[in-house]
Amino acid sequence: MLIKQSGVAGEYQIGEKIKPLDPKSVASIVMYGIFGSLKKPCKATGYSLVYNQLYPFQGLQNYTSGIIHHVRITGLRANTLYYYKCGDPSIQAMSNVHYFRTMPVSGPKSYPSRIGVVGDLGLTYNTTSTISHLTANNPNLILLVGDVSYANMYLTNGTGADCYSCSFFDTPIHETYQPRWDYWGRFMQPLLSSVPIMVIEGNHELEQQAENHTFVAYSSRFAFPLKESGSLSTFYYSFNAGGIHFLMLGAYISYNKSGDQYRWLERDLAKIDRKVTPWLVAAWHSPWYSTYKAHYREAECMRVAMEDLLYKNRVDIVFNGHVHAYERSNRVYNYNLDPCGPVYITVGDGGNREKMAIDHADDPGKCPEPSTTPDKIMGGSCAFNFTSGPSKGQFCWNRQPDYSAYRESSFGHGILEVKNETHALWSWHRNQDSYNSTGDTIYIVRDPVRCPV
User: Fold this and answer.
1) pLDDT, tens digit, for every residue of 202-256?
2) Contact 371, 297 (CB under 8 A)
3) What dihedral angle (degrees, nearest 10) is formed by the CA atoms of 392, 320, 451, 106?
4) pTM of the model as a whole
5) Residues near 281 by beta carbon (within 8 Å), at least 6 away in sequence
6) b/e 299-324 (16+ beta carbons within 10 angstroms → b)
């Protein structure tokens, strides 16, 4: 078993004149061992990097990060509590001691006890409440389905710009205040120093800069099992956690059948042994099945390209963010109820600095014009009027669709507890409720006999 540790040392710089730190000036070392063991600590050495956010225009402040360290630790025992500290012992710069528990071994009867699922976090009052509730639920793995720091909602002088395009409609480049990433990392450290997190990119991680570089902070700050999953991009990868195989897919890179991501997905799915990992869970940022007006059918081109492949391979659950609300579907395929389709769950309600999504596309007068729905980043238009079903000839349903089981505009997070090969308990927790309350709870049941791969 392996784990990848990431951390930041040194201070960032922001201004017109910046001098990047030398990433080789500090070693990337993790000292670790099994908790309670009297053996001498083990040592793992990694690599370090520095990234920049640069603008080709006067008046905008450039940024250079602290030194970001990545260390890969191998040979760990499954489901074992380890202690560790990181830094550079040669200059007496080591962290405090932290602890983490490795994932259980891959197998049909072995699962993480509680998986926290959250999206669209940011760094707001609501974020604080979400993370407080999530921490109280004691997750031993966290999925973050995009939109992390919302650094692109701030100008380079630190001033907030809730509607950037409204204030600067003729701007040649979209500014982003990178120190928000550093603030977010410090805020999350108490939780993430002991609980592993797996992240996929959202639209707010785009962060365009000079020479058209994008998603640089996202790709630099997090660890991804690219080599282990055969991926060539931080935008998509996979991993196992006990008897669950996770597919982390990219909504902001080509998903067409001729593209690298689709071909990688075919190879990855072909290698899965459902006798070892019975559960197949996928996550990406933009939802395919959301009934809110905000971002309605925005990811339709991705759905058209990939849905058949996921359906034929019997993906059980899909997690998304992007829409700032909570919604859970019934099992669905091609907009029709289907006992072999996945359950789609949108958890874009983590604490974003933008407003909540409230209006539904099926509310009177709220159905958006089809021309307004294409994804602004990927482009293309694949959403047309329905050709069958209750909304035949219409772009929206005139009531809550059959595939939509529960929806609510409240901040919160979710917890997935896989019990065995066929049953998983999903619960959604509102921020305004007490810590031991749930807003939505359901058992998700697999039927491999009725729905073979």
Assistant:
1) 999 999 999 999 999 999 999 999 999 999 999 999 999 999 999 999 999 999 9
2) no
3) 170
4) 0.96
5) 244, 245, 246, 247, 315, 316, 317, 318, 319, 416
6) bbbbbbbbbeebbebbbbbbbbbbbb
Query: How much is the mean pLDDT over the chain?
Result: 95
Please say if the pLDDT value at position 414 is more than 70: yes
pLDDT at 437: 87
Cβ distance 227 to 238 under 8 Å? no
Across the strands, what pairs with 283?
248, 319
For 408, the 3-state DSSP assignment is: strand
Which of 312, 319, 267 shows the shortest CA–CA distance to 290?
319
Q: Are 412 and 432 in contact (CB under 8 A)?
A: no
Q: What are the C-alpha distances in Å from 54 to residues 164, 165, 177, 420?
A: 18, 20, 11, 49
CA dist., res. 174 & res. 314, Å (int): 40
Burial of 67 (0-12, 13-18, 19+ CB in 10 A): buried
Which positions ≥6 away from 251 have C-beta within 8 Å? 146, 201, 284, 285, 286, 299, 302, 375, 378
Angle formed by the axes of helices 125-136 and 179-192, to 10°?
A: 20
Residue with tokens 């053996």: 39
Q: How far apart are CA 312 and CA 332, in angstroms?
A: 13
Q: What is the pLDDT of residues 103-160, one digit of tens each?
A: 999 999 999 999 999 999 999 999 999 999 999 999 999 999 999 999 999 999 999 8
Q: Say yes or no to pLDDT of 28 above 80.
A: yes
Angle at 183 between CA 188 and CA 351, to 5 degrees: 60
Q: What is the DSSP letter of 419?
A: -
> What residues does 45 pair with on adjacent strands?
29
Phi/psi for 246 (5° steps) reads -105, 130
Report whether 172 contacts 346 (CB < 8 A). no
The residue whose two tokens read 């891959």 is 106
- Is residue 51 exposed (0-12), middle (13-18) or buried (19+ Cβ within 10 Å)? buried
Strand ranges, E, within 67-165? 67-73, 81-88, 93-94, 98-101, 115-118, 141-144
Which pair of tokens denotes residue 422? 């066929």
Pairing label, strands 336-337, 279-283: unpaired
CA–CA dist 104, 404 (Å, integer)? 33
Q: Is the pLDDT of residue 10 over 80?
A: no
Give me the pLDDT at residue 4, please.
Answer: 67
Concatenated DSSP letters for 255-321?
-STTSHHHHHHHHHHHH--TTT--EEEEE-SS-SS--BSTTTTTTHHHHHHHHHHHHHTT--EEEE-
300-312 vs 260-271: helix axis angle to the nearest 10?
Answer: 20
Report the side by side order of strands in the sheet with 197-199: 197-199, 141-144, 115-118, 412-418, 423-430, 440-445
> Active-site residues: which are they?
295
